[in-house]
Task: structure prediction
Amino acid sequence: MNKPATKIFYLSSFALWALFSKFAAAANLKDALTITEKTAGNTYKTDRDIYPILGDIIAVILSLIGIIFIIFIIYAGYLWLTASGNDQKVDKAKSILKQSIIGVAIVVGAYAISYFFIQIISPQLKIQ
Result:
């Protein structure tokens, strides 16, 4: 097999092993479904405060914005590599790169500040 096919094979084998590891401990299918139901039932709690939920929403939004800035960094690198000595393209790539790095720094700072304040506002999580 070639290398990508080998990697896909190992990754899918690991995913299947992780998926069916709970079923291996069960004596029969009924026990396996009971274990799965208990596990799924414990993952969603309705008695959470608004602050941890708000923190999760902020984290997701900032993560998506951070991904966009990382894509801009990759784009700037591509522009720079394909500039072929054209000074205008190099300057454009440098400008995009600087702005993207500043954007990533702002997103990381905003995430740290929001995480800090969510921890202060909600010192005790009610997740059981």
